Amino acid sequence: MDSEILIEARGLTRRYGPTTAVSDLNLMLRKGEILGLLGPNGAGKSTTMKMLTGNLAPSAGEAFIKGLSLHDAPTEAKKHLGYLPEQPPVYPELTVDEYLRYCAGLHGIAKKDRADAVEQAKRSCSLNEVSGRLIGNLSKGFQQRVGLAQAIIHRPPVIVLDEPTVGLDPIQIREIRALIVELGKSHSVILSSHILPEIQAVCSRVMIINRGRAVYDQPVIATRNAKMESLTITLKRPPALDALNRIVGIAGVEDIGAGRFRLSLAGGNDPREVIVDAAVNNNWGLIELSPEVKTLEEIFVELTSGDEQERKAA
Amino acid sequence: MKNIFAIAGNEARRIFVSPLAWAVLGIVQLIVGIVFVLSLLDYARFSEQAGDSFGVSDYIGGSVFGFSVIVLLLVMPLMTMRLFAEERKSGSLTLLFSAPVSLTEIVLGKFLGLLAFVFAVLALLALMPLSLVPATHLDLGRIVAGLLGLFLLMSAFGAAGLFVSSLTREPTIAAVGSFGLLLVIWLMNMLAFNDSIPFTSVFSYLSLIGHFESLRRGIFSSADAIYYILFTALFLWLTVQRLDMERN
């Protein structure tokens, strides 16, 4: 965990008049991490991204790119940044090549390296076949890819992507995901999405934002394993409930009929092995053992659903 | 500096790939061309009576450039309306805002890009009086002074238009707004003719058009040039301020 911190946000807050879009958001991203921003519509994802890319000044707090403050040294900080906003920032009257060459120049790529940078970005986003076409005549999916090519053309250490797979067909989505994973190895990527499986497939960390607050910030691994809260087992020859209750690590047993039991687990224990041993030794006839994992979706719904918020507010 | 030229180059390219620029160039040339021919015919008719004191450069150059000002007042807002308003509307302004360039570089880049169009207009306008060179003796100094005046005037129009364009996200509103702004500054001159209004001399001094008169007549006064340069700089500075406000 000693790798370089590429993005840091401290107490990021943004108010639009009386409404607070983002409030006291802290974020830290190291090299090689891909952070997924999740949240319902209007939760403040795009506002957060705009602040992280210097498009919007925070009302309070500060953002740093590679240790450079976006407030005090904006041009220096922005050199290390690639940003794809919700709407790809393209000029419809230019061709893909013209546009990417301009972007390369804008991001300070030396003249002699520009052609290479353009080629590489086009290859990464599979744009070679449309190089000479006007961006305005391309489909939404291609425009999105041109926007993505623009964000990575200067190979910035920090890449911020606002819903990068919107408007793409399933094959393109897979390609773009693969590209993001590839980029994530050597860069830091922040991406926002509504699509939970996408976040799970691509990101190494998830942050859930609701009503401008970060309500969840954990590695994706945590959503896969650590959240096991109960087990369901089916036994052909079930013993008395007491016998199950005595197994170490089980906090409670509930008979749900037909030889099935729901075992709630005492914090953090994984008694699966013990259960299997006991079932074999006592000849219970174990035919099912399934952990009930809290999925990202359940976490998301739990954290962002309306009643939850109201209960907290009350 | 490199960034300014990169932005200016792209801006100029985008201006000249759009049909608007060519339509505007064509129509300006047509209208001013008609005026040129008419004043040429006028001159041919009256020159015998007027005698030697009445020069062709003065008459032709004066009427062509004087009339161009009115056409350009109508046309420049159309060329400046897109600069920021359209980019904001289409979201492409984000590209500039997240690139490692300062706001001053963005504004100067856009302005320089616009100047490429201004030079195209000037070159085409200059062709008309210059077409007389083989036939008669022209006072080139006068023509150049007139062109310089037009250049300064168009820079001022352009800077004001750029500023108005940075205020809105609708190109049409930007066009109407900058046309209105230019007309108001122009009309200050009219106030100056009304003696019942105090400070008439201030109004007449601030008017955009008053300072063009002498240049059109071939008198290069540094005060007039500085007026236009200050006017241009003021609006470019206001644009930078406005863009800075936008992020807050």
Can you walk through the features of this model?
- With 314 residues, chain A is of the alpha/beta class.
- Helices cover 37% and strands 29% of the residues of chain A.
- Chain A contains twelve helices and 14 strands.
- In chain A, the strands form three sheets. A six-stranded mixed beta sheet of chain A has the order 6-7-8-3-9-10, with helices on both faces. A four-stranded antiparallel beta sheet of chain A has the order 2-1-4-5. In chain A, strands 12-13-11-14 form a four-stranded antiparallel beta sheet.
- In chain A, helix 6 (170-186) links the parallel strand 7 (158-162) and strand 8.
- The longest helix of chain A is centred in the middle third of the chain and has 17 residues, at 170-186.
- The radius of gyration of chain A is 24 Å and the shape is elongated.
- With 248 residues, chain B is mainly α.
- Chain B has one domain (2-246).
- In chain B, 83% of the residues lie in helices and 0% in strands.
- Chain B is globular.
- The chains are: A alpha/beta (314), B mainly alpha (248).
Topology (SSEs and partners):
The complex is a heterodimer of chains A (314) and B (248).
Chain A: E1 5-16, E2 19-30, E3 34-38, H1 45-52, E4 60-65, E5 68-69, H2 74-78, E6 81-84, H3 96-106, H4 111-124, H5 140-152, E7 158-162, H6 170-186, E8 188-192, H7 196-202, E9 205-210, E10 213-219, H8 220-226, E11 228-235, H9 241-245, E12 250-255, E13 260-265, H10 272-282, E14 286-293, H11 296-304, H12 306-313
Parallel strand pairs in A: 3-8, 3-9, 6-7, 7-8
Antiparallel strand pairs in A: 1-2, 1-4, 4-5, 9-10, 11-13, 11-14, 12-13
Chain B: H1 2-17, H2 19-50, H3 56-90, H4 93-98, H5 103-130, H6 140-165, H7 171-193, H8 200-206, H9 210-216, H10 222-246
